[in-house]
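User: Could you check the structure of this?
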Amino acid sequence: MWGADQYPIFSGHHFLPRARRVIFIWQAGGMSPYESFENKALLHKLHDKSPVKHRDACSAACLRPLYNFSQQGQSGIEMSDQFPHLAKVIDDMTIVKTLQNFAPAHPQASNFLFSGERLNDKPSLGAWVNYALGSDNPHLPGFVALGGAENISNGFLPSDLHGVFFETEGRALDFLDNPRAISARQQQAAVRQVADLDRLYASISGDDKARAHGKVFELAYKMQSSIPQVLDLQQEPDYIHEAYGLNDESTRKVGVDLLSARRLLEQGVRFVRVTDGGWDHHSGLDQQFPEKARGLDKPLSALISDLKQRGMLDDTLVVVAGEFGRTPFNEGKFIGGFGRGHNPDAGIVMLAGGGIRQGFVYGETDEFGFKTVKDPVNVNDLNATILYALGLDHMRLTYELGGRTFKPTGVGECRIVRDLFA
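Assistant: Sure, the predicted structure tokens are below.
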């Protein structure tokens, strides 16, 4: 079988790493800042009125934050009452208020968030991390996706770097069990034969795709025994089930995903991407936002506390972000009710662990919360900073293809946001 002769590509790091692993929780659709961390007094004053300053951007009236805000923790970070459990761990977190994207529509914005470019044929961030550092466990992939399989492509990188999607309810993967007629010895022999053929073809043709093909088969074989144990949440004590919200239908889905992610990270997976969809509230904001907030609040708080208790938070970077923010205008008024449109100029990122500052707020927006006025962090800045936490320089992590040098942060300028670290 293939040895560890291809990945990781580095035996060391570009920088001293602060984190060994990453969990990226994607709030697909884009969470509203105004119902979470942006309490703008002017919006209360101009509620249901059309603002002259931004009339060119939207003809809809202003919409005030729908929920009560208060300062929480010793850090005094202002946040809405929709996140009572996160309020208890807010002193372990940094809140970025100025995430910027280069596209206002979900597909392109999501591509930018995870690959640094508009088109969907480029490698995702997790694939780049897998390419650079590999997995800490030869029986598990380096890049895993839970909750959704979008934006986990290897792109032009070798195919064995593609994110592996696991179901967290029911069977994690299809075909984990061998057919009754095939013994373990027969299967192992078949895997070895495929690997030998791929190695032979690679040596003759110089084609690395054959090498990646063999590694995919080998990893699949190993996962037949490793995955059922790693994702068996019944091994966790009752208090952990309760902490993550597994006993409550409103929190169970995210709770299962985050607890599964913690177990995968604990066993050596380098990068876990969890998708929490349903944050795109063009209408029904007043009904749907509390449901989404409740679903994330308790499990995310439990994850941070659990990692901290296990001594893993210091070297695990927790990232929570959508592809963009929302506008201060009531788009839902056109169809009745409350809703907010897309705002690629000011979104929220929640960070914890991995050397990140504690009880800290970064970035400022204007009086409407509509435009960034201080310390912008674009999506490529965010990814460059995630890589920096892992000890990787986004400018030196490259791949040559068709005469072009590709890097994980696209073609535009970006920076490492060092101020986010303690």
